[in-house]
Amino acid sequence: MKYILNVAQTLLLTYYAYMVEYRAELFLWALSGSLPFILMGIWIKASQTGNIELSAIEFAHYFLSAFIVRQFNVVWVIYEFEKEVIQGKLSPKLLQPIDPVWHHFISHISERFARLPFILGLILLFFALYPQSFWVPSLGQFLLFLFVVILAFILRFIIQYTFALFSFWIERASAIEQIWYLPYIFLSGIIAPLDVFPPLIREFALWTPFPYLVYFPASILVGFPVDIFRSLFMMFLWGTLFFILNRWLWKQGLKQYSGMGA
Fold first, then answer.
1. What is the maximum alpha-carbon separation in the chain?
2. Distance between CA 205 and CA 207 in Å, rounded?
3. Residue 209 phi/psi, 5° resolution?
4. Contact 47, 59 (CB under 8 A)
5. Beta carbons within 10 angstroms of residue 60's beta carbon
C-alpha cells in the first residue's frame, strides 16, 4: 500500500509540474469550455420572451454550474493513447510495473489542480459581470456536488479510454470520440438543462450516460430537483458496462499490438 501511495504521489507531482509549465495553454483550455456562457445569454433572453419554466437567474446559475462541471470532467486520453500506439510509445510503458492507464489518469487529475486558479478567476469574473446571479450553495449541496462531479469525471474517463483502445485496430480512434461528441453536446445538458426538453426526449436522455456527465452534477449544485438514487445507479451501471468492455478490449488489444511486432 505504501508503495502504491509513493508511486501515485510521484506521478501526481511530476505531472502537476509538467502542467504548470503550460499556464497560458491551460488558460486557453479553460476558456475553450466557455460554451455554456454563450448559450446562457440565449436562454436568458428566451426566458424573458417565451413560455419557459426556468427564470433568467436559474438559467444563469445552471450554465455557470455546467461550466464548472465541464472544467472538471474534460478528458483527452483518446488523443494521447492513439498517438502512443501509432508511434510505438506505448511499448516502454508496458515494461513498467504499473498499468499505462495510471499515467493518463493521474495526468488528468494533476491538470485539474493546475487549472483550478483559472476556474476560480473566471467564476469571480462571472459574478462581477452578473452580480444579481450570485448565490452560495448549502454545504450539503456542495459536498454532494463534489462527490458526483468526481464520479462524472471517472465515468467520462472510462468511456473515452474505452474508445481509445480501438487504436489497436484502427489508426484514428479519435473519430469515435468525434461521433460520440455530437449526442454528448445535445443530451448532456451543455446546450440546455434537460428541464426545458420535451418529456419524451428527456426520458430517453436519462437512459443514456450523457446527462450524468454534466446535467446531473450541475443540477445538484444549483438545487434543481433530480432523482439522486436513480442517477447514481445509472452512473454505476454505465461505468460498469464500459469498464468490462474496457478490460476486454485491453486484453485483446495487447495481443494485436504484440502481433504487430511490439
1. 64
2. 5
3. -75, -10
4. yes
5. 25
- What pLDDT, on a 0 to 100 scale, did the predictor assign at position 262? 46
List the one residue out of 39, 32, 34 whose CA is nearest residue 193. 39
CA gap 169, 156 in Å, rounded: 22
**pLDDT tens string 242-256:** 999 999 999 999 888
What pLDDT is recorded for position 221? 93
Q: The C-alpha cell of 52 is what?
A: 419557459
Can you spell out the DSSP letters for the chain? -HHHHHHHHHHHHHHHHHHHTTHHHHHHHHHHT-HHHHHHHHHHHHHHHS--SS-HHHHHHHHHHHHHHHHHH---HHHHHHHHHHHTTHHHHHTSSS-THHHHHHHHHHHHHHHHHHHHHHHHHHHHH-GGG-----HHHHHHHHHHHHHHHHHHHHHHHHHHGGGGT-S-THHHHHHHHHHHHHHTTSSS-GGGS-HHHHHHHHTSSGGGTTHHHHHHHHT----HHHHHHHHHHHHHHHHHHHHHHHHHHHHHHHHTT-
98-134 residue pLDDT tens: 888 888 898 888 888 878 887 888 888 888 888 888 8
Ranges under pLDDT 70 in the chain: 1-51, 258-262
